[in-house]
Specification:
The chain is mainly alpha-helical. The protein is built from 8 helices and no strands. It has 2 domains: 33 residues, no CATH class; 200 residues, no CATH class. Helix 3 runs antiparallel to helix 8, helix 4 crosses helix 6 and helix 4 packs parallel to helix 8. The longest helix has 43 residues.
Length: 279
């Protein structure tokens, strides 16, 4: 059973509202008898600032976008060399230019791989940090246990859905409440755009990679290179929205930490939380 107002949290008042929607009046409402602990008692009492990790993630995501731009340029150069050969049936094919194009394309691919791996590691560490903070802010909004903030990324197929589900819980729990303690909705547009572009770029990249492995004829190389360039362009857009998402969520958690660890008005809980050292 969920709150009759927000449909998100367990009800704690006689009229079926949760603690946040009930406002100050809800703070005095007795908790209904239940075998489980109260909904807003978190397993930890401290927060850790995600700001340092967020800065590192932003820098790495910027490098991802730069590597993608270089890959697009290398791909365009490869297409130019191959197209020039097709024009005269490779009668005057420039082997030196072709070799240079291959080397540049391969180097760009290696750079993309290295930067993406580094970014993925640091991003997941940041993601776990904000997930643990969300557990302190409002554990009732978390759809999965904290460990899934890492594991969800490594489950085939499910990793296209589960991390977004976890991010949604973090986003809602990190939203700054209204001054009267009531729940406030923060539009998740930037999060949805980041996730949408990331999933699309991932799917297109996988398809383009498989097609490039099968490409043997010059025209096939031209087509698959263009497809890979398209996936790189999508990845650039995804990286931009990822930066906006990381910065927005990190800022939200800082503002939320200044208001209090638990939902405002929770009996017996301090009204303010500082970044601690636990986790």
């Amino acid at each position: 059973m969920l709150c009759s107002t927000c449909r998100l949290r367990p009800p704690v008042t006689d009229d079926g509202r949760c603690l946040l929607c009930a406002g100050p009046a809800g703070a005095a409402a007795p908790m209904p008898p239940a075998p489980m602990p109260p909904a807003f008692i978190a397993p930890q009492q401290y927060l850790r600032s995600p700001e340092g990790l967020a800065k590192a993630v932003v820098v790495l995501l910027t490098l991802v976008a730069v590597a993608d731009v270089l890959a697009v340029a290398a791909g365009q150069n490869t297409r130019r060399v191959v197209a020039a050969g097709l024009e005269n049936d490779f009668a005057a094919y420039d082997d030196a230019a072709a070799s240079l194009a291959d080397n540049l394309y391969a180097t760009a691919g290696v750079l993309q791989t290295l930067v993406s791996l580094a970014t993925g590691v640091v991003f997941i560490i940041w993601f776990r940090r904000v997930r643990l903070n969300a557990e302190v802010f409002d554990p009732s909004m978390q759809p999965m246990r904290p460990g899934w903030s890492i594991g969800a990324w490594f489950v085939p197929i499910a990793n296209l859905v589960l991390p977004r589900r976890i991010a949604g819980g973090i986003w809602t729990a990190s939203a700054q409440t209204n001054t009267d303690g009531s729940w406030r909705t923060v539009p998740a547009t930037v999060m949805n755009l980041w996730w949408g572009f990331w999933v699309v770029s991932l799917v297109v990249s996988q398809y383009a990679t498989r097609q490039s492995w099968k490409a043997a004829q010059p025209q096939e190389i031209l087509d698959t290179t263009a497809l890979v360039m398209g996936s790189d362009a999508l990845d650039i857009v995804a990286a931009v929205f990822a930066v906006l998402f990381v910065r927005a969520l990190t800022r939200m958690q800082g503002e939320r930490a200044a208001l209090g660890t638990y939902p405002l008005g929770t009996p017996g809980v301090p009204g303010r939380a500082d970044w601690g050292r636990a986790h």
